[in-house]
Design a protein that fits this description.
alpha/beta; Rossmann fold; eight-stranded mixed sheet; 10 helices; disordered N terminus; binds S-adenosylmethionine
Length: 273
């Protein structure tokens, strides 16, 4: 786990698409390459709803962070699988409520660190980017950035937004979420969204496609029940069960909903203890 030193060259592997850059393309960003756009074209042929899904998911993340900052008083955010900077970023949403809000971004794609540095220039005293595999919980919590976030014992919101499907069953993503939850101060929160389908054929097809195209940097598309297990024993907020995230506290009745549903982003916001 590390931060990239100034002057160090970033070496990009452009032989295969990256999840961070594909997601950036789906959101209409420009930090992507032909290999990512070609992969998205193939994905959109298989699952045409995916572009809409990415937007709906990002809008959920923004609503959840704003809600936690404004209505729950959260000022600390640990964003696992943060992706490439996409305005508004988590710190921009939280700092609209309180400019002292702190965010640690974690991603294992080096391009996120490279672009994150530019974003950090905004205010390095409140934001940090770690280039780390989020499965390395011990190392992440030992980092000076995470220690600073946790130092005053105030509640933290741990975000796992559209990233747990990158972890395979054998790596126990449920155990990972519990481990992080156990380390957070009392009164902390979890925000989770996860690609899900209750059609086994769709789950198998999209999982195989994503594993293949990303060279194995992918886990599983899961059933809604399996995603629901991430919330077991937790108090869900603003919904009595996990939901298609376009339905989680929509800004209005006219807010975008996911129309076609080969797969959905399923999840919610919960209080830990
Ligand atoms: C689909 S993007 C989601 C970005 C953001 N959370 C959002 O929802 O808008 C998933 C991100 O997770 C990152 N990622 C995947 N596996 C990871 C891992 N094991 N550790 C850290 N980041 C990971 C990818 O590089 C990518 O940037």
């Amino acid at each position: 786990m590390r931060g990239r030193e100034h002057g160090e060259r970033l070496i990009l592997d452009l032989s295969k698409p990256s999840i961070a850059r594909m997601y950036d393309f789906l959101l209409g960003g420009t930090d992507n390459y032909q290999v990512d756009r070609d992969a998205c074209d193939e994905l959109l042929r298989l699952a045409p709803s995916t572009r809409e899904l990415a937007r709906v998911n990002r809008a959920f993340l923004v609503r959840a962070v704003r809600y936690l900052a404004r209505d729950c008083g959260v000022r600390r955010f640990l964003d696992h699988g943060s992706g490439l900077p996409t305005r508004p970023n988590v710190h921009q949403v939280a700092q609209e409520i309180d400019p002292t809000s702190q965010v640690v971004y974690i991603d294992n794609d080096p391009i996120v660190l490279a672009h994150g540095r530019m974003m950090l220039a905004e205010d390095p005293s409140t934001t940090a980017v770690l280039n780390a595999d989020m499965r390395e919980t011990d190392e992440i919590f030992r980092s000076p950035e995470a220690k600073r976030l946790l130092r005053d014992g105030r509640p933290v919101a741990a975000l796992f937004v559209s990233v747990l499907h990158c972890i395979r069953d054998e790596d126990d993503p449920w155990g990972l979420v519990r481990k992080v939850a156990d380390r957070l101060p009392p009164g902390s929160y979890l925000v989770i969204s996860h690609l899900a389908s209750d059609d086994p054929e769709i789950r198998r097809g999209l999982t195989e496609f994503m594993q293949d195209i990303t060279g194995g940097a992918w886990g599983e598309v899961r059933s809604v029940d399996r995603v629901g297990e991430f919330f077991e024993g937790l108090q869900l907020l603003e919904a009595d069960r996990p939901v298609d995230v376009s339905r989680w506290l929509p800004d209005s009745d006219l807010a975008p909903r996911q129309r076609t549903q080969e797969w959905i982003e399923y999840g919610g916001v919960a209080r830990i203890g």
